[in-house]
Every structure is written in structure tokens, then in C-alpha cells.
Amino acid sequence: MNAEQGAAAPHTAPVAVVTGASRGLGLALARVLAADGWRLVVTARGAEELAAAAAELAAVTEVAALPGSIVDGPHRARLAGAAERFGGASLLVNNAGTLGAGLGAEPLPRLADHPVPDLRELFEVNAFAPIALTQLVLPQLRGRAGAVLNISSVAAVVPYRGWGGYGASKAALDLATAVLAREEPELRVWAVDPGSMRTRMLQEATPGGDISGEPLPEEVAAVLHRLLRDRPPSGRYRAQDLAAARTADGR
Question: Which CATH superfamily is domain 15-248 in?
């Protein structure tokens, strides 16, 4: 069994495309979907990490793993094509993202000092590429009353120092999400702020900081599973609000 073939799964099983699926929230969401019987098209830039993730997922469901950057147009086309060969996507999860420059030993840069090429990359990865991939997958989603889940951030609405470039790119994705929801009323189109999580990305953004008290991506994925299951109206949601509602109704 390899990552391209995966375990035997009914061809009537729904198909999801998940970006940034090699680790963190993307991998956690892929695991939840696999356990629910979804067939998966997964991608990430790190080929080695993606192969390891795909091998794990392939033990549960059918998986097509395509390493590459979502900024690359031909790669986006390959993702849409892989979903089409599976029978067509019912869900697109735009999870891949970047914090840009300033990772590691230095804090995130102020807008006044943020290199313009890096700002361009932030918008390419966090806003333009998800919109472009959505355009390619939309014909598949429309015929299946499908859904688009765009992973946003609190930085899209709160002006944190040093997070201006990242936050602005996520704000652009939020607005695109809201517009798409108006233009595609037969679909569900969500932007979700997952909150802080115990991930490599957060640790890189806060060098030396203690993130041990933050929830694991698996905890947030379990909350987002409710969103996918219950299909509330299109809109912007916060994971903490979804979790509170889940606790209130006992689910």
C-alpha cells in the first residue's frame, strides 16, 4: 500500500483537498477527515514530512499526496486534477500559510522594516494562492453542495505589533471568503480563526516563548469537525466559540 493508493475505500466516499497537511492543524484535520471516511488529496512544501503523513493516512483511507508550493500555478492545477480523478472534491481546506521573515532568533518585523519581497510572499501564500486554488476546485464543489474552509487568524482583526504583514494577508483572505460566500450561496464558505496552538509556526513566531499551555492542533481539529458535520451558515467563526457551543449542547 502506498500513499498514492491508500487503503480500500468506497468510491462514493467524499473527497477533501487539504493544503499544509504535513503537520500542525492541516495534518490534524486530515486525520479527522480520514477517520470519517473522506478520501484525501493532501499537499505541503516538505516532501519528506508529507510522505510520512500520507503513509499514516493511507492506512485509513485513500490518499493522493502531492508535495509542492501552493504559490505554484501548475501545482495548484495538479491538486485540482487529483481531486477530479477521485471523483471530485466536496471540501477544500485552505490551511497552508506562512509567517514570512523574522522567524527563528528574531521577532516578527515591524511594518516599517518589513522587506517588501517578504510582504509579497505573505500575500501570495496566505491570500492569493488560496483564492486561485479555490477557483480551480469550485466547479467540483458546486455540483456537490461543497464547502470551503479557509484558516484565518486573530491577527486578521486585531492589530498586533509585528504581525502587520501576516495579519493584513489574512484579512484579505477573510474578505475574499465573505465575498465568495455571497457569490456562491449554494456552498458553505467559512473563515475560521483557530486561535493559538502548540505548533512549530507559533514557536518560530515567538522565539524563546513558552507555548506549552496552548491547545494542541488535534484539539482544535476536533472542534472544527463539528463545523464540517453541522454545516452552519457561511461566515467567520472562532474555534473557541465553536468549542463553547459544543460544551453547551453536550456534544
Answer: NAD(P)-binding Rossmann-like Domain (3.40.50.720)
